[in-house]
């Protein structure tokens, strides 16, 4: 019970349609399994409620909450609701991200509107969520902030501009938050998933590219050095659980790849 009596907010706790489990839902379930009380936040309330129901069915504590990361007022409401429910916030886990579905493209095909949309969701929403959680955590003199970035931030060959730049921005901002808030006992770390078998990563690409899911999955599996198999939402969730727990109490400002060694190939 590594999260016993902890209060955790998972922003992006729902998931896209498709097979398997997403990073956000897996993390919410794992935090709750380890004893946390979880606020499952998503712009799609029905999807957030599916996550909350799964947590409750497993004997955990969870409430679904509708929040759009593009709206700063919603991020303030997330923090206020959590405090009203449980009186504190121990972990802010920001799991929201879009790429192709948000209009992302190679630089020569990218529109201004698409670039702004992806960055509003992936990066600006994270900044605004942190803005509104920091006063709570500073007053507590404790707290953990986790950003779900991506190894795409480190890749020189990843072709989609807005996703890469937004995920790199998340890492830079996380480092800043870690350094400027260490005196308050607040830790901030980024987790960088690689090629994962999640609905957003595989099913969304299959729909956007009009190709079979199995074909997309096989192509991604072949690029993973460790076992030639993608990771899953559970792999991301377990990395987050460690960083959120007191086992990582002396770790802050890190960017942890969870990618089966894919980033060791020189940025592929």
Description:
The chain is an alpha/beta fold. It has a single domain, classed as 3-Layer(aba) Sandwich (Rossmann fold), CATH 3.40.50. It is built from 8 helices and 7 strands, in the order E-H-E-H-E-H-E-H-E-H-E-H-H-H-E. Strands 3-2-1-4-5-6-7 form a 7-stranded parallel beta sheet, sandwiched between helices. The protein starts with 6 loop residues before the first strand and ends in a 10-residue tail after the last strand. The relative contact order is 0.16. The model has no long low-confidence stretch (mean pLDDT 95).
* Helix content range: 40-55%
- Structural class from helices and strands? alpha/beta
Number of strands: 7
Strand order of the largest sheet: 3-2-1-4-5-6-7
Q: Largest sheet at a glance? A: 7 strands, parallel
Identify the notable features of this structure and list them briefly.
single chain; 268 residues; alpha/beta; Rossmann fold; seven-stranded parallel β-sheet; 8 helices; 45% helix; globular
Write the layout of secondary structure elements.
Layout: E1 7-11, H1 23-33, E2 37-42, H2 45-57, E3 61-66, H3 72-86, E4 91-94, H4 112-140, E5 143-148, H5 161-181, E6 186-193, H6 199-209, H7 213-221, H8 233-244, E7 255-258
Parallel strand pairs: 1-2, 1-4, 2-3, 4-5, 5-6, 6-7
Write a short abstract of this structure.
By secondary structure, the protein is α/β, with parallel strands linked by helices. It is built from eight helices and seven strands.
């Amino acid at each position: 019970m590594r999260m016993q009596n902890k209060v955790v907010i998972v922003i992006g706790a729902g998931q896209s349609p498709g097979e398997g489990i997403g990073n956000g839902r897996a993390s919410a379930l794992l935090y709750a399994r380890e004893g946390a009380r979880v606020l499952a936040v998503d712009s799609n309330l029905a999807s957030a409620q599916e996550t909350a129901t799964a947590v409750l069915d497993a004997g955990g504590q969870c409430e679904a909450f509708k929040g759009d990361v593009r709206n700063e007022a919603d991020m303030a409401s997330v923090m206020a609701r959590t405090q009203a429910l449980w009186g504190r916030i121990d972990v802010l886990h920001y799991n929201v991200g879009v790429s192709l579905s948000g209009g992302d493209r190679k630089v020569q095909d990218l529109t201004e509107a698409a670039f702004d949309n992806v960055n509003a969701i992936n990066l600006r929403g994270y900044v605004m969520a942190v803005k509104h959680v920091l006063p709570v955590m500073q007053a507590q003199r404790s707290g953990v902030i986790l950003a779900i970035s991506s190894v795409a931030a480190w890749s020189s060959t990843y072709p989609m501009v807005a996703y890469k730049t937004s995920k790199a921005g998340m890492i830079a901002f996380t480092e800043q938050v870690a350094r400027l808030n260490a005196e308050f006992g607040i830790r901030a770390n980024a987790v960088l998933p690689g090629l994962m078998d999640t609905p957003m990563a595989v099913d969304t690409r299959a729909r956007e590219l009009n190709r079979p899911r199995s074909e997309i999955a096989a192509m991604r599996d072949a690029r993973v050095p460790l076992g030639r198999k993608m990771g899953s939402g559970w792999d991301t969730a377990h990395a987050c659980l460690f960083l959120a727990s007191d086992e990582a109490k002396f770790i802050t400002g890190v960017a942890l790849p969870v990618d089966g060694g894919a980033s060791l190939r020189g940025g592929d």
